[in-house]
Amino acid sequence: MASLIERYRDRLPVDEATPIVSLGEGSTPLLAAPRLSERLGVELYLKWEGANPTGSFKDRGMTLAISKALEAGVTSVICASTGNTAASTAAYAARAGLRAVVLQPVGAVPAAKLAQAGALGARVVEVRGSFDEALAAARVLAERGTHVLVNSLNPHRVEGQKTAAFEIVEDLRGAPDVLALPYGGGGNIRAHARGFAEAGAGTPMLVAGEAAERTTTAAAAIRIADPAHAEEAGEAVRASGGTVVSLADDAILRAWRDLALLEGVLCEPSSSAGLAALVEAGVEPGARVVCVLTGHGLKDPDAAARVSAPSVVVDADPDAIAEISS
């Protein structure tokens, strides 16, 4: 399978001198969601970004950011992360032979994400403070010239992430009426808006779901108090005629359960913020809608365990099993 950069080479800032660092990212499924479509009265599709190599949409931008870092001759990259950027940075840096340093707020990142970044060889540093404080420290180190920052402030990240919009247009043979997605740092909103504009198929109405309590939400991946792309993301949403919906955790987790139980898609809780926003915003009946599901549920298994029914222990007796499973 061609790498993401190879597929969209003519729309990305690369040339023949750019070494391509790829793990087979992109080409993620666009899944019809018939049961949720019936419930909501729309034609709903799920852009399943959990199918990327490290389990999140971050790989789209990271393949380009790391490729360009390698082209520039750097030896170290750095990021601040609530988990997904860390894993993606670690994987692509390992693929490129670069050293990766990831800064994560102490106690705020799911254990699975910490383990993923560490297993991939990154130097994981837990910072006493918030994500925003960790990002500020990463930016200082990048400004000193010792590391290249690969957070979404790196313009190559947004460039790579815009390719999701290209794929949606290809699969639907046009843009959807509505695009719903989570709102953490805002870079993915900005990237999708850019991608639809460059695809020339028209920009859908953007519906973005953010946690009402950004610093304490159970949706760990969007636990960002000060979105780095707030101005650009807000302008993209306004220009599309869309809206940003502030969501209680109960609404996010309800949408998360609906995705799992009605459509068989286990995403991490933050990924369901787009669907939760769609439910609260309300759209035209019959509209063609795409919800971007940004990360796999196995990124945050503890969250799944907390809100799932406990397992039941019985003897290996068919009658006993039949009784409890009827």
Structure description:
- It is a single chain.
- With 326 residues, this protein is α/β, with parallel strands linked by helices.
- It folds into two domains: 4-56 and 156-306, Rossmann fold, CATH 3.40.50.1100; 58-154, Rossmann fold (3-Layer(aba) Sandwich).
- It has helices spanning 4-7, 34-40, 58-71, 84-96, 111-119, 131-143, 155-161, 163-172, 187-199, 230-239, 249-263, 273-281, 301-307, 318-325, and strands spanning 30-32, 43-48, 76-80, 99-105, 123-127, 148-149, 178-182, 205-211, 243-247, 288-293.
- The strands form two sheets. A six-stranded mixed β-sheet has the order 1-2-10-7-8-9, with helices on both faces.
- Helix 3 (58-71) packs across helix 7, helix 7 (155-161) crosses helix 9 and helix 8 (163-172) packs across helix 9 (187-199).
In short:
The protein is α/β, with parallel strands linked by helices and 326 residues long.
Describe the SSE topology:
Layout: H1 4-7, E1 30-32, H2 34-40, E2 43-48, H3 58-71, E3 76-80, H4 84-96, E4 99-105, H5 111-119, E5 123-127, H6 131-143, E6 148-149, H7 155-161, H8 163-172, E7 178-182, H9 187-199, E8 205-211, H10 230-239, E9 243-247, H11 249-263, H12 273-281, E10 288-293, H13 301-307, H14 318-325
Parallel strand pairs: 2-10, 3-4, 3-6, 4-5, 7-8, 7-10, 8-9
Antiparallel strand pairs: 1-2
Helix pairs in contact: 3-4, 3-7, 4-5, 7-9, 8-9, 9-10, 11-12
Structural class: alpha/beta
Calculate Rg over CA atoms. 20 Å
* Helix-strand pattern: HEHEHEHEHEHEHHEHEHEHHEHH
CATH architectural type of the largest domain = 3-Layer(aba) Sandwich
Low-confidence stretches: none
The count of helical stretches stands at 14
CATH class of the largest domain: Alpha Beta
Shape: globular
Work out the number of β strands: 10
Could you say how many structural domains there are in total? 2
What would the CATH topology of the largest domain be? Rossmann fold
What does the largest sheet look like?
6 strands, mixed
| Average of pLDDT | 93
What's the N-to-C terminus distance?
45 Å
Strand percent estimate: 15-25%
Strands ordered across the widest β-sheet? 1-2-10-7-8-9
Give the proportion of residues in helices. 40-55%
